[in-house]
Design goal:
It contains 12 helices and no strands. It has 224 residues and is mainly alpha-helical. It has one domain: Orthogonal Bundle (Tetracycline Repressor, domain 2), CATH 1.10.357. InterPro entries: Homeodomain-like_sf (IPR009057), HTH-type_TetR-like_transc_reg (IPR050109), HTH_TetR (IPR001647), Tet_transcr_reg_TetR-rel_C_sf (IPR036271), TetR_C_25 (IPR041484). It holds the Pfam family TetR_C_25.
């Protein structure tokens, strides 16, 4: 992957600060924070390393700026989940620039994988946003009630992250060489079908799992 393509996120009229931030997001997402150096970021952004320091002070402060930017973008998209019109806008946004969209997701996935200080903020914020959306849907009757809304929010975020960061073998299992709009469309429809209609024909499996869990909680703990 060439450096110019690595940091390309839209208009050539971006400010130097935005170019540096976008280049850093791309490098941090691909190589991780520890392996990325400011000289590589500067080269991708087409500026000097001194200018990077001038605008951001240090690599840690640059990462903080990247964290804030990516989080704002992802939260805007999270809000759109509750609005069918916005969902269409998000789909068009992905199709118009899948590289930029994917970079933000990979950046967050890398932060979570490396357990960086931003990881807790990313996860908690997205889960909080998802929980609010779920509770609003339950309140207005568009969603079925849940016995554990918080756990459902965590599961929702987990599914979304897993889908957007699919490993290549899973993508190929669907008959595609790489992830893209066609993969997301196919999985998205299947996911909505599952969420809307369910998968099991009755609640036998659910009741069995609940009974097994309750039995494990009631049984005396084994002596260690």
């Amino acid at each position: 992957m060439c450096s110019a393509h690595l940091g390309d996120e839209g208009s050539a009229d971006l400010t130097a600060t935005a170019k540096i931030r976008n280049a850093a997001i791309a490098h941090f997402a691909r190589d991780g924070f520890q392996k990325t150096n400011l000289r590589a970021i500067a080269a991708t952004a087409g500026v000097s390393a001194a200018l990077v320091i001038h605008h951001f002070g240090s690599k840690e402060q640059l990462r903080s700026a990247c964290d804030d930017h990516v989080l704002r973008v992802l939260i805007r998209r999270a809000h759109g989940v509750a609005d069918p019109v916005t969902i269409q806008d998000i789909s068009r946004e992905y199709v118009s620039d899948p590289e930029e969209y994917g970079r933000h997701v990979r950046y967050m996935a890398r932060a979570i994988e490396e357990d960086t200080p931003a990881a807790a903020t990313f996860v908690n914020t997205l889960v909080d946003e998802s929980e609010q959306i779920l509770r609003a849907g339950i309140a207005d009757g568009s969603l079925r009630p849940s016995s554990d809304v918080r756990a459902l929010a965590v599961l929702s975020v987990l599914i979304s992250l897993s889908t957007l960061t699919m490993a290549p073998p899973l993508t190929r299992a669907l008959g595609y060489e790489q992830a893209g709009p066609d993969v997301l469309h196919r999985l998205g429809l299947t996911m909505l079908e599952l969420f809307t209609h369910g998968m099991y024909a009755d609640d036998t499996t659910l009741k069995a799992a609940q009974a097994a869990w309750e039995a494990s909680q009631d049984s005396p703990k084994r002596d260690e």
